[in-house]
Amino acid sequence: MPWSDTVGVVGLGRMARALLLPLLDAGLLERSAVRAAVASEASARRLSDELGIQVSTDAAPAWAAPVVLLAVKPQQIEAVAPAATEALAEALAAAPTLAAAPSPGEPLLISVLAGVTLARLQALFPGRACVRAVPNTPALVRAGLTGLSWGEGVGEARREQVRRLFAEVGEVLDLPEPQLDPFLALTSSGPAFLALVAESMADGAVAGGLPRPLAMHLAHRTMAGTAALLQGQELHPGQLKDMVTSPAGTTAAGLRQLERAGLRSALIEAVLAATERSRQLG
Q: What pLDDT, on the 0 to 100 scale, is given for residue 154?
């Protein structure tokens, strides 16, 4: 069933497009129901043609929508807040019932800004119920993960609506807000870490004699198959490692080199660094 509300999108970068494209392509969000805002006229024209939606440098139509996806850079949040306040004031003047107690029809702000807390969102966007969402880019192939934390005044009807929206592009989890930063580090930064591992493995195979296109294909398929096996058989990663490691074999030799090079520690520190950076951005 298509999303029933008009949706405003403020900022139309990679993450916003990763969320919108699968929904638009599947007909779950009508293109005519989207009002997007970007900073430059050139970007507005390009994205309007590319996505088939209304894109403008005027943010007022986006902020006037009953549901707004906020997807600018965290550093830009102070700059976009005044337009949101002005749009809400105009909406309240036209429909005073919006100022009543929280209801399924109240203005809703869904933020995908890394690290920006619910407290800060609610301070900058008064009069809107706020949701903090942490999706990841595998949403592009409807294999995403999204963590959600709820601000004050988000009723159960709205929660179900938001869950259904993100469920169309992957798995959805309700999380306490303090857990969103490590969730982001693992699931949103994690694809870049895994992509680096895949690229490095392919580089090793090329050094060993494989053609690069074949090496890249095999690295991708190996990662996808491994993930499917871990999840499908509910294996601990250590179990899978032991399954393929024979005494004095090729895998044991490779693992020894990875431990010597500090791969395990490097990945742990990468996730912790991304977690801390998320907190700093907030």
A: 92
Contact assessment for residue 88 and residue 60, using Cβ atoms and an 8 Å cutoff: no
Q: Is residue 104 helix, strand or coil?
A: coil
- Long-range contacts of range 117-120, CB-CB < 8 Å, 24 or more positions apart? 117/177, 117/282, 118/149, 118/150, 118/151, 118/177, 120/77, 120/282
The answer to whether the pTM exceeds 0.70 is yes
Angle subtended at Cα 56 by Cα 16 and Cα 66, rounded to the nearest 5 degrees: 65
Say how far apart CA 184 and CA 171 lie, in whole Å.
14
Say which residues have a Cβ less than 8 Å from residue 89's Cβ, sequence separation at least 6.
Answer: none
Distance, in Å, from the CA atom of 130 to the CA atom of 156, rounded to the nearest integer, reads 13
- Residues 64 and 87 sit within 8 Å (Cβ to Cβ): yes
For the chain, the residue count is 282
- The neighbouring-strand residues paired with 145 are 171
Q: Token digits for 271?
A: 């996730």
Element (H, E) at 123: helix 118-124
Q: Which residues pair with 174 in a beta bridge?
A: 148
211-247 tens-digit pLDDT: 999 999 999 999 999 999 999 999 999 999 999 999 9
Beta bridge partners of 79: none
